[in-house]
C-alpha cells in the first residue's frame, strides 16, 4: 500500500520561502506521476503542481507560476515543492499525491496526510 509523508510546512512571513518534501513508500515511485494540491479552510482542494515520471515534465496552476517549482528525486523516492515569494493567500494544507495518470484534477489514487503552510502578512 502506498504511503506518502509530507514535511516542511510551517509559518513564514509574506515574501518568504518554504520547501515541502513528500517521501513515498509502498509504490514504484519512478513509475508514478506526482502532484501537489492544497486546501484552504472552507475551500475545495485545488491543484498546485505536478511532475511526470516519464520525462519529468511539469504542470503548474496559474497562481503559482514563476513562484513555485516542483521536482522529484527518484533515487530517494521524494517529490519537492519549492515555494518562493509566498503570499498570505497561499495559506493552506498542502498535500502530495501519486497516480498513474498525469492530471491536474484531484483524482489521484494515493494521498498524504498534508502539511500546514501559513503565510503571515
Describe the structure.
A hairpin with a 4-residue loop joins β7 (68-73) and β8 (78-83). The model has no long low-confidence stretch (mean pLDDT 96). The chain has strands at 3-7, 10-13, 18-25, 33-39, 46-51, 58-60, 68-73, 78-83, 92-99, 110-111, 115-120. The strands form two sheets. Strands 2, 4, 5, 6, 9, 10 and 11 form a seven-stranded mixed β-sheet that branches. With 121 residues, it is an all-beta fold.
Question: Which characteristics define this entry?
Answer:
mainly beta; 7-stranded mixed sheet; globular
Distance between the termini: 40 Å
User: What fraction of the residues are assigned to beta strands by DSSP?
Assistant: over 45%
Structural class: mainly beta
**Biggest sheet character:** 7 strands, mixed
What would you report as the Rg, rounded to the nearest angstrom?
A: 13 Å
Topology summary:
Blueprint (H helix, E strand, L loop, with lengths): L2 E5 L2 E4 L4 E8 L7 E7 L6 E6 L6 E3 L7 E6 L4 E6 L8 E8 L10 E2 L3 E6 L1
Could you give a short description of this structure?
This protein has strands spanning 3-7, 10-13, 18-25, 33-39, 46-51, 58-60, 68-73, 78-83, 92-99, 110-111, 115-120. By secondary structure, the chain is mostly beta strands. Strands 2, 4, 5, 6, 9, 10 and 11 form a seven-stranded mixed sheet that branches. A four-stranded antiparallel sheet has the order 1-3-8-7, with no helix packed on it.
